[in-house]
Recover the amino acids of this structure.
C-alpha cells in the first residue's frame, strides 16, 4: 500500500535562521513565561489558576476552581510545547519540572481515570452531562497530544498512561453501545488526538472512538438537541446564523459542504475527519474533506491564511465575506488550519495543501507573536486604524498592540507548540519518494522502503531568497526527491550538480528521480515582487491589491508611510525594489513609488472638488512583523492605481 | 430687537406634489395604522400596550405595564402627528378620538399632576429616582409637544393644562432649590419642549426649567454619578468609549465640542441649547451650539444627512468615522438633527443650517418610510448586501426591508410628526424680511413688522426641477424676500417679472428687496448631475464618489444594476442623463455608462490575474426610494474610475 507518511519524530533537525530564531524564542521566552502564567506568578496579567486547579483537584490545596471551563488545556498545551522544545534544546531542569507536573496530574486523576479539574472540583456528578458547552473532551484531546509529545521526545510513558486511563474512562461513558451517551465534543480536537494515540499505542480502540465522534456528529436524533432539551431549551446560538452548525453539529459531517461556525472547532474537526478519511479510505469522508478544504481556501481564507471572519462566535461568516478590519482571524484557527492542511497532504500529496500550510505559517500564524516572543495577538486583522478601534465598538475585539497574556489564553501556547514542532511539517514520505513541502534549512534522515537510509542537508535563506540547496549523503540506494513548486511561483529551475535539469512535475511537485549519494540539488524559485488581487466576489478588496514576495504577504505600516493609509494608491506596473534590512529582526523590505491622496482639509465634508494625488515613496514590510514598532495604522490591501 | 421668528402655526399651506403626497400618506396610512398599533389591534407585530397602559393607570382596567419604559411617548407622538394632520385635513372623527384619548390621559393623571404610566402602575415611590435610565422627563417632553400641537391646531386647551400640571409637578421635585433633586433627563427632549411651552403659555417658568436642565447637565458634583453611586455603582456604559457622555452628561454643555454618545439624545439636547442660546443671548452657549453643529455637519454626518455611525449605543463614533454598511443612522436622529438645524436658523439666518435641514429631509429622513407609507426603517444604511446582513452579526441591526412596526417604535411616529409638520420649516421671518429656506409649492401669509400683510404663492416641481416661481399678492408694503441659494448649487439666477435681477447674497440667501404686490419672482437653480467626494479623512469613502442632483442623493440598486455593486466604477466625466420616470412614485432617474469588473470566477481566491472591466449602462435612483422593489443590494458610494 502506497501511503504518505509523516516522519518519525526527531528525524528533522531545523537549523533555519527564520524558524530556529522563533523556536529559540519559544524555548527562551514563551515556555518560561507561560509556566509563570500557569502558576499565577505574573504581575499585571489575569491569573491563570490552572496549576492551582490541579493542586486543588489532587487534594493538595483547598480552594475553588478558577478560570475558564477549559483551563486544563493551557497546562496540556504548555507540556506539549515544552516537550517539543526538549527535542531541540535538552534542558534537565525543564524536564524535571515536567515530570513533577505530570506527577501532580496523576494525583488529580480519579480512581476511574477521570481527569478534568473543573468537574473534580465542582462535582463529578455533572461530568459528561453537557458535552456541548463544557470542554471535557477538548481538554482530554490536548492532554493526549501533550502526552504523545512528551513520550516521543523523552520516551517517558507516565503521562501517556494517565491519559489512556482517562480516555478509557470516557469510552466507558460515551459511545455507540446501549447505555452509553451517544455524544461527541462541543469543541473538537480529541478526534485527531485519538488517531495519534492509536498510532503511538497501536491500540485500535482509540481510533475507533475518534471515528465514532466524527460519524455520530450531527446524526439524528441530534445529541446536542437532546442536551438542549434537558436544559429547558436554553441554547445560546438559537437565534444566530449558525444554530447547531456553530459546533458543526447541525448535520452529519459528510453532508457539510461549507465551513461554518466556530473556526477553531471547525478546522480541528476537519483535521480529525482527514485522519479518519485517510485511515479508512472512506471516499465520502474524503470528498467531504476536500469540499470543506476547498471551501475555506477558495472562498473563506484571508490572503494571510487567517480564517474566521467574525468576532461573533469567533466564526466563519460566509463565502467571500472577508472584512479586513472587523475580522477575527484567531491565531488558533490559523494553527488548526495547518493541522487540517497537513492531514490533507497525508491523504493525498498535492502541493495546494502545502501551499496553504506555508501561507499560514509565514503570515497569519506567526503574526500572533511579537518579534521578541513576549507578546501575542489573539485576533489578526489585515487593516487597523487605532483611533477607530478605540471608538467604534465593532472593533472591540481588535487589539492594536500584542498583549502579554489573555484571560482565555488559548493562542500563545498553541503558537508555542506549533513553532516548537515546525519540523513535523517539512517532509512526508511515500515509499522511496521524499516530499519536501516547506523550505527551511535542516538536516534530516530518512529510511526508505528498502530499509536503507538517506540523509539530506538543506540550506536556504528562505523565505527571503528563493535558492534552496540540498546536499544528499548516506544514500544507500537511489530515491526520488519531490520538491514543492509553490503556487505563487511561476518561474523556477532545478540544477543537479550544477547541471540544469528539466524536472517533470506531479501534483505541484518537481520530481527528481534517482537521487544519490553526493548529489547537490539546487532549487531556484523566482522571488519577484508580486501584486495580488482578490476574487471580485470579495467586496472588501474590490479595486485593491496586496503585495507578496515569495510566501510572505506584505503590509503598509504607519511607521513607514504615515497615517491615512487608505489614501495610498499603488501601481503594479511601477518598479519595486526588495532589499535586505536589519529592521524588524531582519527582513526584505520593499520600496517604490506610490501615490497619496491629498488630505488637505476641505471645509465641507462632501464636495465636488477633485482630490489631488502626489507621488510618494512607499515602504512595505512583512505582515507578520506588523505592530512591533508601537501603535499605528496597518493595511495589507491598498488601492490599485490606474483602474 | 431683530429676531428670527418662526411663523405662527397654520400660516403655510403646502400644496407641493412631493410633500403633499407624503403628508397624505401620514394621514391616510400612518395615523390610522399607528392608532391600531397603540391599541394592540395589529396582527403579526409586537403589541404596543401604550393605550392599555393609560387605561390601567387610569384605573379603568386591571393589568401590568407593558413595553419599554418610554412607551407613553408613542402615544404623545401619535397625538402630535394626528394634530398636525388635522391642520391640513380636518377630520371630526379623528378629532373626537383625540379628545377621548386626552380624557383618558387626564384620568391617568395623579392628584399632584404626575403622569407617567410606568411609575403609576409600578409604584410611584420610585418616580424621579432614576432620571438617567428611566424616561419620565423624555415622555413628558413628548407630551408637551403633543399638547402644543393639539392646542395650536384646535385651540383646545385640555391636554395643555394636563401637561402644565405635570410639568409643575416635575418642577416641584427637580430644580436648583435646596431640597429638590439637582437632576436632568437621561434622554433629552423636554428642554426644547419647555421652551415651546413657555412661548405658548407665556409662562417664563417653563423656559427657566429648560435652562436649568441644560446648564445643570454635567456640572460637578455630577448628578448621574450620584444616581449611579446610589445603585451600587451599576452603570451600563462604564467600559464603553462614552462613559457619561453617552448622555452628554460627562461635562457641562458649554465645554462639549464633539457630538458624542446616543445620537438622538445628543441632537435633542443641542436643539434645546440652541433655543436657550437664542433666547438668552448667551454667547458661550451660542458658541457651543455652533461648535457642535459644525462638528456634526463637517465631521460626523453622512451624505444623506443621517447621523449616528454605530449601533452600539445608537451613537456617534468619532470624527470622520462614517461606515456605510454598519451605520446606525436612526431615522429619529435625522429628525432630531432637523430640529437642531432649524433652531440654529432661528439663532442666525445662515443658509448652511437650512442646507442641512434640506439634506436630511430629502434623504436620510424620508428613507425611513416606504413609498406607500406602510413600512419603516429604524436604521438607514448607505450600503447593503443582503446576503452579508443575514450572515455577519455586525449587520444584525440592519434590516434590508422596511418593517411594519418595531418593539421600540420610536421612529415611525417621529417621522409622521415631522412630515405632518413640514410646513413649519419652510420660512422664518425677521422684521420685514421673509426667509424662504425650503422650496416646495405653498401658499403662505405673513404679517410684517408694520402689521401689514403679504401673501406668497409658490409653485415648483422641486426637488426634480430647479425652477421656483413666487407670486406676491396682498403686499400692503414693500418687503425683502431672502431666497436660500443651496450649498450644492453653484449656478443660479433670479428674474423679477421676467427681468433678470442681479441679487446680492447675504449668508447664503439671495436678497430681493422691495418686493411688492403682483411681483412674479422666479428662482432658477441649476440641477445638473453632480458627483461628490468625501473628505479624504473618511476612509470608508476613499476613492469613491456619490451622485447627487439638486438636494437628492442617489444610489445604485440591484434591481437596476444587478448584484456585486462594489464591482461598478463610475466616471464623473461621462455624460449622465436625468429623465423623468414614473417608477418609484415618480422620480428623476439618472443613467449613463459605467464600468463593471468581470466577476468571472477565478480558481484561486488570490491571484495576479488582472481584472477586466466592461462598459455597462448604470441606473441611479434617489436614495430615499431604495428598498421599494424587494430585497436587493444598494450602495450610495461607488468607485471612481480613472484614479
Amino acid at each position: 500500500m502506497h501511503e504518505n507518511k509523516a516522519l518519525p519524530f526527531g528525524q528533522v533537525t531545523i537549523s533555519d535562521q527564520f524558524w530556529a530564531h522563533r523556536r529559540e524564542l519559544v524555548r527562551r521566552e514563551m515556555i518560561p513565561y507561560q509556566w509563570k502564567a500557569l502558576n499565577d506568578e505574573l504581575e499585571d496579567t489575569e491569573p491563570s489558576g490552572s496549576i492551582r486547579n490541579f493542586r486543588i483537584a489532587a487534594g493538595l490545596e483547598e480552594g475553588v476552581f478558577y478560570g475558564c471551563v477549559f483551563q486544563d488545556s493551557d497546562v496540556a498545551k504548555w507540556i506539549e510545547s515544552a516537550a517539543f522544545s526538549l527535542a531541540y534544546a535538552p534542558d534537565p531542569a525543564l524536564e524535571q519540572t515536567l515530570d513533577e507536573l505530570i506527577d501532580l496530574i496523576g494525583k488529580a486523576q480519579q480512581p476511574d481515570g477521570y481527569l478534568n479539574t473543573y468537574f473534580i472540583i465542582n462535582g463529578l456528578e455533572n461530568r459528561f452531562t453537557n458535552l456541548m458547552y463544557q470542554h471535557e473532551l477538548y481538554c482530554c484531546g490536548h492532554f493526549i497530544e501533550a502526552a504523545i509529545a512528551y513520550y516521543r521526545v523523552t520516551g517517558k510513558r507516565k503521562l501517556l498512561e494517565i491519559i489512556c486511563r482517562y480516555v478509557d474512562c470516557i469510552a466507558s461513558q460515551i459511545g455507540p453501545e446501549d447505555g452509553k451517551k451517544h455524544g461527541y465534543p462541543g469543541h473538537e480536537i480529541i478526534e485527531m488526538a485519538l488517531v495519534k494515540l492509536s498510532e503511538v499505542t497501536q491500540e485500535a480502540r482509540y481510533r475507533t472512538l475518534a471515528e465514532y465522534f466524527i460519524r455520530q456528529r450531527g446524526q439524528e436524533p441530534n445529541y446536542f438537541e437532546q442536551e438542549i432539551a434537558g436544559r429547558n431549551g436554553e441554547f445560546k446560538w438559537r437565534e444566530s446564523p449558525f444554530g447547531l452548525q456553530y459546533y458543526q453539529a447541525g448535520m452529519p459531517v459528510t453532508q457539510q459542504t461549507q465551513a461554518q461556525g466556530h473556526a477553531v472547532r471547525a478546522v480541528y474537526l476537519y483535521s480529525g475527519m482527514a485522519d479518519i478519511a485517510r485511515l479508512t479510505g472512506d471516499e465520502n469522508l474524503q470528498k467531504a474533506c476536500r469540499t470543506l478544504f476547498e471551501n475555506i481556501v477558495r472562498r473563506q481564507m484571508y490572503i494571510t491564511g487567517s480564517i474566521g471572519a467574525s468576532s461573533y462566535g469567533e466564526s466563519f461568516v460566509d463565502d467571500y465575506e472577508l472584512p479586513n478590519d472587523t475580522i477575527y482571524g484567531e491565531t488558533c484557527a490559523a494553527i488548526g488550519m495547518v493541522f487540517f492542511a497537513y492531514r490533507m497532504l497525508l491523504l493525498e500529496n498535492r502541493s495546494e495543501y502545502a501551499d496553504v500550510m506555508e501561507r499560514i505559517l509565514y503570515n497569519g500564524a506567526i503574526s500572533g507573536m511579537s518579534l521578541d516572543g513576549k507578546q501575542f495577538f489573539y485576533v489578526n486583522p489585515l487593516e487597523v486604524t487605532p483611533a477607530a478601534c478605540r471608538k467604534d465598538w465593532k472593533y472591540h475585539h481588535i487589539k492594536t498592540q500584542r498583549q502579554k497574556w489573555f484571560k482565555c489564553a488559548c493562542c500563545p501556547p498553541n503558537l508555542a507548540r506549533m513553532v516548537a514542532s515546525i519540523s513535523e511539517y517539512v517532509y512526508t514520505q511515500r515509499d522511496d519518494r521524499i516530499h519536501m513541502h516547506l523550505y527551511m534549512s535542516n538536516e534530516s534522515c530518512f529510511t526508505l522502503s528498502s530499509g536503507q537510509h538517506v540523509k539530506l542537508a538543506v540550506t536556504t535563506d528562505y523565505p527571503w531568497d528563493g535558492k534552496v540547496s540540498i546536499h544528499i549523503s548516506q544514500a544507500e540506494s537511489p530515491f526520488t526527491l519531490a520538491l514543492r513548486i509553490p503556487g505563487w511561483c511561476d518561474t523556477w529551475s532545478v540544477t543537479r550538480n550544477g547541471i540544469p535539469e528539466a524536472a517533470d512535475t506531479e501534483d505541484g511537485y518537481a520530481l527528481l528521480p534517482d537521487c544519490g549519494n553526493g548529489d547537490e540539488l539546487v532549487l531556484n524559485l523566482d522571488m519577484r515582487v508580486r501584486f495580488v488581487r482578490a476574487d471580485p466576489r470579495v467586496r472588501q478588496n474590490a479595486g485593491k491589491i496586496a503585495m507578496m514576495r515569495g510566501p510572505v504577504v506584505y503590509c503598509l505600516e504607519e511607521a513607514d508611510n504615515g497615517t491615512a493609509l487608505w489614501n495610498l494608491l499603488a501601481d503594479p506596473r511601477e518598479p519595486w525594489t526588495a532589499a535586505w534590512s536589519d529592521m524588524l529582526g531582519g527582513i526584505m523590505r520593499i520600496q517604490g513609488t506610490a501615490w497619496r491622496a491629498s488630505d488637505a482639509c476641505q471645509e465641507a465634508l462632501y464636495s465636488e472638488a477633485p482630490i489631488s494625488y502626489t507621488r510618494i515613496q512607499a515602504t512595505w514590510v512583512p505582515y507578520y512583523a506588523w505592530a512591533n514598532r508601537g501603535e499605528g495604522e496597518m493595511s495589507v490591501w491598498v488601492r490599485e492605481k490606474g483602474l
User: Anything to note?
Assistant: The two ends of chain B are 54 Å apart (CA to CA). Chain B has a mean pLDDT of 96.
